[in-house]
Amino acid sequence: MFHLRLLVPPALTAAVCQALAENPGVAHVVLVRGAAVRPAGDLVEADVVREVTDELVDELLGLGLDAGAVTGQDLALARSEQARVAERATPGESADSVVWQQVQERADDESVPSGTFLAFLSIAVLLAAIGVVLDSPITIVGAMVVGPEFGPLAAISIGLVLRRWALVRRAALTLVLGFPAAVAVTALASWLATGVHLIAPVDLDISHQTDFIYRIGPFSFIVALLAGAAGMLSMTTGKSAALVGVFISVTTVPAAGYVAVGSVLHHWGPVGGAALQLAINLVGIVAAAVATLLVVRWVDVRRHRRLQERAVRR
């Protein structure tokens, strides 16, 4: 279930409470008059079945609630007879439902080219470069987990499906700034390391366990597609644990790390392969994420139609 927290101007309280009472997907409602300080008004809280959250929020905003405030979060526990009644009254499964308002909010957050994003990406690419030099798959996996690049890729996909072009441009800018900056930082660190004899060209000659980074094959694109699909399902359904597997699956950060250290050590052939690997993964992830989001949206639209038809029959 989903918990809604509403700060309601007093003039709208009656209409908001009526909308909540008439929606069969609303399980619990709490009203505390005069509790809201900024903006001033009444506090209304409701536990709502995920399947009806989007249309309910749209309805509340249509009443003028944007003059107050609407916040929400997933509920980890909801045990009551009212909750069971609300679940039975709505078609579909909560685990399959999507709160599109939440998805868009997360996409907006992930698309910003922040200093934190650049720092995490730079650290991840540095770790990947060290893994390449040490021929250490474990270090490469660690770099994959640290990398934050899926957020902007998901934001691009969401922007394309929802036709939010400003979101697409902002997320693309984050990647365009992030990867070159991270590669530049790693290349500089690699150049400094050669000066103190920490690394040498021969280190890449014996890197056999990490040659998957620059060896391109059919599975390079297939893995990117599967990772993009899994990542988008994770974002839309709130199953965040699956994102760790997505991070480990794709070869974006390792490829960027190889491009940086390989360029400094003049391994131009593998550098070209790593750059192509990076491009293949980026394109594959976005393509699969867009396709997955379109399917999820189609299913969600059909479910909402069934819900509306059931409401009309009542």
UniProtKB/TrEMBL annotation:
InterPro entries: DUF389 (IPR005240). The keyword Transferase does not apply. This is DUF389 domain-containing protein. Residues 1-21 form the signal peptide. It comes from the Bacteria. It holds the Pfam family DUF389. Keywords: Membrane, Signal, Transmembrane, Transmembrane helix. The chain crosses the membrane at residues 116-134, 140-162, 174-200, 212-233, 240-261, 273-296. It comes from Nakamurella endophytica.
